[in-house]
């Protein structure tokens, strides 16, 4: 059994997170319920920042809010002195509602709309990460119309493949993201950006993938990018003030995962950029990174109530919970794996192996296959660990199931930060037909 952050078994024999009994949380807020260990989020944020500070380099640690975006989470990121990476108008709107410092907001995305770019310009955010020529032209035209200068990074694909799931590879040459570093696209984009009166090019950005357990990919990406920067420095007299090497730092979902510490990722990245900058006699750029999952993933636990069970003789036993792919689609989408315990008796003797089924009307709605558990019944609570990233943010209303609430726990206190959706919420945007389609009044 592996506990994350402040999680432990308390005197009542229950799972406790942030000093709060999860049985009490389930009784007060119901299930399914997302529970976030705030102390663990703070610890991870500080580990990234403190390592940069110890290494004596200029930096920004930008929380990749796509992992988990709520007003309360962005307030927490602001408290910890992080910057912010948003990828949509909705995420930017949430950031502004959280009163996040606009100069520390970076806007990503491969197909930003005109309206989203206008929104970003009106908010006067700190930086836009330009992904393609279409966006480059549109942004320049909008800035010209508004007589406004915007700071940008150019996203490049360095041709590095991270050792991760095929669905979340982004740094290789065949990618929907960014300007290719090898075929001349990146250089053409750089020249156009440098010629613009309205775009201030800070530097380059890359992101090589997600759930990465080693530093080799980041080192190779830094080598390729700085080598190209050396060429552009000589030919175009361009020296970047910023090099953003993205995120993708891995977390532990199961015993098979062995992620590095935040400090190790930062140390290796900074070391390599320093080596490459010295090699090519370039000024040391400010280093930006974008942790998302690695800040919030392990801090999240989802509580479920156990319901029906079904035993297929000599095959398996299914145990159903009152959630599933509507609150955690990752197992169905990515074949993601999780570990879990009974929150109300985590130390009980293991007696059987079960598979945890969700309640959605899909045979693929399975949360965990072959999970060792004590004998369980509908009086038990299941706690699924490491659901803090891409659980709530990818939650949906399939089968018209309301999304669960979110609770932050810290120092023995629980705070509701997202209310449970109601059936009324599901109908909020539905409109009735006044007459039948095709019928006259």
Task: Explain what this protein looks like in three dimensions.
With 441 residues, this protein is an alpha/beta fold. The chain folds into two domains: 8-37 and 298-426, Lyase, Ornithine Decarboxylase, Chain A, domain 1; 108-291, Alanine racemase (TIM Barrel), CATH 3.20.20. Helix content is 30%, strand content 24%. It has twelve helices and 21 strands. Strands 4, 14, 15, 16, 17, 18, 19, 20 and 21 form a nine-stranded mixed β-sheet that branches. The chain has an eight-stranded parallel β-barrel with strand order 5-6-7-8-9-11-12-13, surrounded by five helices. It has a three-stranded antiparallel β-sheet with strand order 1-2-3. The chain is globular, with a radius of gyration of 24 Å. It starts with 7 loop residues before the first strand and ends in a 15-residue tail after the last helix. The model has no long low-confidence stretch (mean pLDDT 95).
Q: Report the CATH architecture of the largest domain.
A: Alpha-Beta Barrel
Mass-distribution shape = globular
Give the beta-strand count: 21
Q: Ends: how far apart?
A: 66 Å
Tally of helical runs: 12
The CATH class of the largest domain turns out to be Alpha Beta
User: How many distinct folded domains?
Assistant: 2
As a percent range, the share of helical residues equals 25-40%
Going by helix content, strand content and strand pairing, the class is: alpha/beta
Within the CATH hierarchy, at the fold level, what is the topology of the largest domain? TIM Barrel
Give the CATH H-level superfamily of the largest domain. Alanine racemase
Q: Low-confidence runs (pLDDT<50, min 5 residues)?
A: none
